[in-house]
């Protein structure tokens, strides 16, 4: 067997000759090694927010690698990009007196926040508060905590128990959530949720959902962790989605859009409540951190990425494109093959109808492959949906081009009957 690269989230027994090897990127466009062009309709894995091929990020990283490529940030050590980035994130953060814990990505950020939450309660003299509540369809990365907190059952199952003391609740059912809170009085360390469920199908919250969650957390004194790995840094048109939904979490997990994917980096934004407890003399050493926490080159990439978002007013651009994306999605609802479309900011999903012939999973897989053949990269999500989350720099013309191909390919999907207009109705 020639293949040595093990693709993540892949059935390697079925890879055969399907490997797509990408070589270049510019704006929303990618090219593979054969020179074929693709429109990146998902910003990679929801990260390439400022688009591909930004020279100024590459130059800043190169400069930083020459000056100081890496050194530990454990104990007393720091570096200028890490300090500057932390100041900058604290200033952008909606949390009071934010402290910034830098990580290497989203899964690191989730594990870090979960450990902070449990440690917080130990320091508060309530060691029984270890339960973390997560939502159905949630994706919180694939480290220990993230795997156990996963609400996408296929991702959570098959490993045995990794982290115990997690509870799952239907992602939109406030009554069920209230019941879990009531049943576990004095046991709940934190609630964790994505402002808009991402990998679980792009599921925006119902109106008022987050206010109710916030109320329950306050009532039960539980910490609120908002996982903004996808939504942070502008996906919904605000720096953070918790501003969009007007909630005040205790901890915010981020990654992806912090560097637009140019280098791996994550950050946990920690509000005063948790910071004060974990920075107290009584707390001692916080025995947690990563070799590359505060990696100078990654932080240098993040600083320029934030410059670009500000200079090019990309949050306003997202706000302008929000309606355009929603309109294109609305138009697809006319197609019998589409059961539902969903969107929030520059996040969208098209869900296929149950009437698809041969099963929806296969139809999504085929559709994604056919679109790739036509030069548009989309992705299938659990729940039989197609993910759309383009870079913020996509033009309206490029969005139209993407939806023309998507609409044509959706029309080609065979259906056994139109569920919204049954023949015998
Ligand atoms: N949290 C959310 C909401 C995510 O969508 C992801 C990744 O998609 C993660 C955490 C994990 O991030 P990473 O893959 O960088 O570890």
Summarize the structure.
This protein is an alpha/beta fold. It has helices at 43-46, 55-67, 80-92, 106-123, 144-149, 153-156, 174-183, 209-219, 241-244, 272-278, 296-311, 314-332, 360-373, 396-412; strands at residues 22-26, 29-32, 37-40, 99-103, 131-135, 166-169, 188-193, 223-227, 251-254, 266-270, 338-344, 347-352, 376-377, 379-381, 385-388.
Instruction: Report the portion of residues in β strands.
Output: 15-25%
User: What ligand species are in this complex?
Assistant: pyridoxal-5'-phosphate
Spatial order of the strands forming the largest sheet: 4-10-9-8-7-5-6
Sequence stretches where pLDDT stays below 50 over 5 or more residues: 419-425
Number of strands: 15
Enumerate how many helices there are, as a single number.
14
Oligomerization category of the chains in this entry:
single chain
Mean pLDDT: 96
Description:
The protein has 425 residues and is an alpha/beta fold. Helices cover 37% and strands 16% of the residues. It contains 14 helices and 15 strands. The strands form three sheets. The chain has a seven-stranded mixed β-sheet, with helices on both faces. A four-stranded mixed β-sheet has the order 1-2-3-13. A four-stranded antiparallel β-sheet has the order 11-12-15-14, with helices on one face. Helix 2 (55-67) runs antiparallel to helix 11, helix 3 (80-92) crosses helix 11 (296-311) and helix 7 packs parallel to helix 8. The termini are far apart. Mean pLDDT is 96; it is low at 419-425. The chain binds pyridoxal-5'-phosphate. Pyridoxal-5'-phosphate binds next to helix 4.
